[in-house]
Amino acid sequence: MQLGLVGLGKMGGNMAQRLRSDGHEVIGYDRNPESNRSAASLEEMVAALSAPRVVWVMVPSGAPTRATIADLAKVLEAGDLIIDGGNSRYTDDQMHAKDLVEQGIKYVDAGVSGGVWGLTEGYALMVGGDDDAVAMAQPIFDSLKPAGAGGFVHAGPVGAGHFTKMVHNGIEYGMMQAYAEGYELLQATDLVPSPDAVFSSWQQGTVIRSWLLDLLVLAVADDPGLEQVRGYAQDSGEGRWTIEAAIEHAVPMPVITAALFARFASRQTESPAMKVIAALRNQFGGHAVGTAGSTTDVPVS
Amino acid sequence: MQLGLVGLGKMGGNMAQRLRSDGHEVIGYDRNPESNRSAASLEEMVAALSAPRVVWVMVPSGAPTRATIADLAKVLEAGDLIIDGGNSRYTDDQMHAKDLVEQGIKYVDAGVSGGVWGLTEGYALMVGGDDDAVAMAQPIFDSLKPAGAGGFVHAGPVGAGHFTKMVHNGIEYGMMQAYAEGYELLQATDLVPSPDAVFSSWQQGTVIRSWLLDLLVLAVADDPGLEQVRGYAQDSGEGRWTIEAAIEHAVPMPVITAALFARFASRQTESPAMKVIAALRNQFGGHAVGTAGSTTDVPVS
Amino acid sequence: MQLGLVGLGKMGGNMAQRLRSDGHEVIGYDRNPESNRSAASLEEMVAALSAPRVVWVMVPSGAPTRATIADLAKVLEAGDLIIDGGNSRYTDDQMHAKDLVEQGIKYVDAGVSGGVWGLTEGYALMVGGDDDAVAMAQPIFDSLKPAGAGGFVHAGPVGAGHFTKMVHNGIEYGMMQAYAEGYELLQATDLVPSPDAVFSSWQQGTVIRSWLLDLLVLAVADDPGLEQVRGYAQDSGEGRWTIEAAIEHAVPMPVITAALFARFASRQTESPAMKVIAALRNQFGGHAVGTAGSTTDVPVS
Amino acid sequence: MQLGLVGLGKMGGNMAQRLRSDGHEVIGYDRNPESNRSAASLEEMVAALSAPRVVWVMVPSGAPTRATIADLAKVLEAGDLIIDGGNSRYTDDQMHAKDLVEQGIKYVDAGVSGGVWGLTEGYALMVGGDDDAVAMAQPIFDSLKPAGAGGFVHAGPVGAGHFTKMVHNGIEYGMMQAYAEGYELLQATDLVPSPDAVFSSWQQGTVIRSWLLDLLVLAVADDPGLEQVRGYAQDSGEGRWTIEAAIEHAVPMPVITAALFARFASRQTESPAMKVIAALRNQFGGHAVGTAGSTTDVPVS
User: Fold this and answer.
1) Which range is the signal sequence, renumbered to this chain (chains A, B, C, D) (predicted)?
2) Most buried of B83, C13, C58, C205 (most Cβ within 10 A)?
């Protein structure tokens, strides 16, 4: 089928390639003229599509996605469908759908997982929206998803796709941190000369085998002991939103929260909180001051 | 090759079956006369083995394993090998090896993962010990492990096998809790009618696909919404030891610790700590007392 | 000076009493006709005040406070001052101030701590707003605050008062949970027959002596072992907002978050997350099934 | 009364001074000849005391305390009493008491809180031991403790004193971290120009007023914004033991554990765990690689 695709970066570009190789006609647009775009403007892209049109938005979440959808609303017409495949917050989806429904434009949110491996292995899709809207784009979803029974879920109404993807990423944070803590403990002991060899062996037969474990084994194959990588990690929104949703629903999420906070801490050169601890220890115990030559340095508290 | 195997329960029994089907001669002993044992006593089992003997101990960790190894030490001789395949703490291994070396008996510790699936899929093995001791049992390890390059690691000297298995289980705790928190949040929102369907779809193409996820999908297939299972979880030692090792090595492990504490909390009908919170709230705010009919119930604190 | 006071519940009523006993004229209004109100409507209250008027709002945060401020905006005039002394979120303050500035009405937010003890001991005040607005109400603040150098801070511009109070309550959550965990551990050991006696002794000379500790000692004096109180705790907004602010500013807050999550968990009769853990343990280990009579129940994982 | 005191460092020296000023005769010994010691050896110290003797040991916990008690056992006799006032683990106390009872030497463990302020304000004491042993030293305890009803508790049998002190310190960790997190969040917002002023104001009227808060206000008076102190904190044993005891008793202690882990993390220049996170993010998302000039940098996951 025909698809308009806005955003031809790493993710959008790969998705266009996978869709075309499965027989779809993709009219791509990116504001970057050096991209591999099929149209020089949103208008040109829309003009190249037959009604009812399906347009997939694959740009950064927040302001860029909101602006793109607002611009599309000016050039699309009733019966057309916009799919937001970026990493938007589910509350943005609910706002977008409400705005568009006045014009009769349908809206679907699609959480997409798979990263750079999606081109060849397929993308896991989690979509939210009305049944008829989802049905309009089903051939696209079928081509993007991996072969097999899984990899696609119509999770619920508008917002459910990104909510589900958000939870997916929250779980991902927790799992990654679990492996990370285990790796650090293996490095900390003298008993185990090669944590890398241990992780490699875990790829088969263990309870903890997973795709993330496979990726970590690839990483240590390139960089034994992870000596070349800095212990510094960004977070991309979904982790934060997961905790905000947990707070809204009064769900305890200690593991995923700890994983998020570990990333925050990794970006601090020094912890302001720990200055308070150090200052207090000095106040009640004079911990900074040693009494040389005494047998008696009972820590005071 | 020949192997003495002490302990023919769920794990030991399956392992004996897998080894025999691969051509090994297993002389099994269990103190339970109704087990499928080949020998009626440790002495009888040892008498049936040619020197140098290899005996695999597969009994509960702690006192039962310590007693079994002490009994074996009386009937084995220099050059023989004892493998502790149970879930012993690595510090027990170091004690056992030290005791046995005086008699010239070799010692290897083997962490075994794979659960009830190991019989058909193979067991992941993490072993600790001297090279010559490990080599003596390599044919056994090769038959127990899954097909493929992974599933076996000689992790280091005595203790390294169980240390590695302990860390494996710690990671398992964290991963399981990450999935669990995500599942709870999906259940808490009205947006997603079927968290079960979401988890099923995640088996393909996602970053979080794993064997544990596959197992969870099997579980919800049997019991949709997990309505039949109680929210109550035991812990089996390795999680606790992992945190103790983290404390020893000053390694922060917030995720694995949170997962362990969630299990502790699941076994309390009421939290004693939260009684303190409730009592304090009542003291400073009279939170238990409402003023009916007033617009002004500003929570006091 | 004159003060209009909207909301005569537990907090507002006590504050009116403290202000009057210090010589101020308080015109109180509450929508409840059975309250001890001086005026039967906002209009009547405002009519009783000389310009420029100062009106203190002490009603529940969220919709009630927003509605009260909107109603006041209709009857106040340029140069008057509204103080929100409730537990509003600081973002609400910023919205209120922006709305009111168009009419020339000044706005101050005041976080108030002290609970039911404030009547006699004074209320700690944290205020946000422009210098001239804060100055208009300084005599009121001076009467409400405790004697001594502390107990009042002009924390910054509009919103700073409630932001500061929010952080205060976040810290309170963490401190309370620290005592609670310690109390639970003392109860869990056989070594210490009376945790209550221990806590009582801690009121003097220790590093951890505090007003909260004093309150806890009062609580255990009334209810030894806290046997009469349920381990169930509400949370009142500020804890949640503190974590949301932490997420916004990428500040790791493991302790305050753990305290909040402990309250969430206390309100669950069963943890949905732990059902996942239990289901998984059953899948890989058949943990629900014991093999009676065997020596070999090595937990499988 | 007479007291032998081994260890004349910061804590022991101050305690000797407080006891002497209250009329006790203190025979002090320290292995450091430059200390203010009354005796040049343990033997000389013991010889200066009339039976039944009371000797207070105030040296670092672990090996030094164990060695000192072993040495004292050689020179004391039946009916004498040893008090360990250091920061020993309660399990060491149980071992010491068991060893000494064979010689008829009594044993009491005393947890001491108060730090450098104890000299003037008194030390909070938590003691464990038999009634008759505690009674022998009651005049010493009475002089060391602060004036007032609190500050002393006979918490239970041998070990209960140090167990109680351990829990006290665990609570202290949690409280300090709660203040620290709040301070960091106030620093992170632009709304509050002076977190120091806020903390100072909190000393009166608030729910969170405490001695630790008073100390923090002293600290920021010396060093506004804590700019001179490094965000680096040691831990002194009791925090670790508290978590180990929590694990032993299956008590969830998320707050105190988080406080301990924050100290561990503060001593790492880089987190090994976060290298794993960064490596994984790079594997699945190519997060280190940006596509310049594209509108489409949807984070991939």
Assistant:
1) none
2) C58
